[in-house]
Amino acid sequence: MMENTNEMTLIFDSRPVNEGLARITAASFCTQLNPTLEEVADLKTAVSEAVTNCIIHGYEGEIHKIRMDLRRKGQELFVDITDQGVGIADIKKAMEPLYTSKPEKERSGMGFTFMEAFMDEVTVDSAVGVGTSVHMKKTIRR
Amino acid sequence: MNTMFQQDGSVLTVHLPADVDHPISDEIRRESDRIIGKVYIRTMIFDFEATDFMDSSGIGLLMGRYRALGMRQGCIRAVQVSSHIDKLLHLSGVHKYIEIQKSEGEGMI
Questions:
Q1: How many angstroms separate the CA atoms of A37 and B82, rounded?
Q2: Which residues of chain A are within 8 Å of residue B68 when distances are taken between CB atoms?
Q3: What percent of chain B has pLDDT above 70?
Q4: What is the per-residue pLDDT for B104?
Q5: ipTM
Q6: How open is the CA angle A48-A28-A25, to the nearest 5 degrees?
Q7: Comparison of pLDDT for A99 and B12, the residue scoring more
């Protein structure tokens, strides 16, 4: 039998109001894998962190496009969130718990920590002046 | 005053909405700082009864208000906290600075 696969892409403006749209879309897509409420809550928080990063850090408040790719392969869920913003010079430092480049905005510096805590895998591709792509994977246990 | 906010003497209670994310955290920050600048607030209570989603923006909000109230022990309380919110508070380390009261019935299932 063919393995269950499915994919979708959502492209949206980097407006804070769309953070909700992105995480609800990811949660809806995920329901076909029969997740627990806890798994859905974890996914929503991870997506929200990645999208908020694009808005605040990637585009620094300017309105441009954010792209979210959702892909299912069996019980594995892949989420890629991409911006074409300023990029991250030091990815290792950006991913350190409590590190934030914007303390004046009361960012907690926990964004990547939450993504790593709630997803099974998180990797980041970034180039200064080109943009940033966060790749996340979560296996939904059944 | 915004309907989320309830002030009783030096105690300011915030009834948080279903989703505590980046835009709502900004709004709550602005309104609470406006109130704190106007009247003496000793304790802030964040009521999570209606909340089922939060991200790190909410953590920034709690830590920022902790600083705004002089970083005194017990000046920030999180009440009616669900297990998912409790997980975020512990992962971020915020639980070391604020008082947390889990919602009734949590862990009974």
A1: 12
A2: none
A3: 94
A4: 73
A5: 0.85
A6: 45
A7: B12
